[in-house]
Sequence to fold (148 residues):
Amino acid sequence: MKFTTTAILAVAGVGALRVVQMEHHRRQQNEIAVARIQLDRIRHLTAHPHLAESWAPSGMAVDKYVKLLDANYQLCAISLRHELGIVRGHRLDFVAKWFMKHEVGRQYWEEFGPLRAEEAAGDSDLEEFTEVMNDAYKAHSKAEPVGV
Fold:
């Protein structure tokens, strides 16, 4: 009787673990699908500046906005890697510093960093990502101010 109870508990435990694993995989697949839609839209706007003009912040030239969209494309790809657990810790620090080495990356963060921070509020993964990107921005901006 004891063996049967142990076996039933073991099977139930494996089943529960499988359900958790399937849910995690489903969330990752949803994240990938949403990121693909966003990346496709960004790429479409950078390829068709006349369409990007409608989405540009008030007073921003469309050519500048298209450059910032291109930086956003790169940042979204990095963010997806972070969300999937591929880029974490030291690797995230490295990638953030690399992104901010580029003037267009710093220009993007200067313009849209506060919006990304607002969007991240309440999501610990996005908050961590945003904090690392912001720290890299501040470090590079001290050394190489935007537009200089």
In short: The chain has one domain: 37-143. The helical segments are 2-47, 49-52, 62-83, 89-101, 103-120, 124-143.
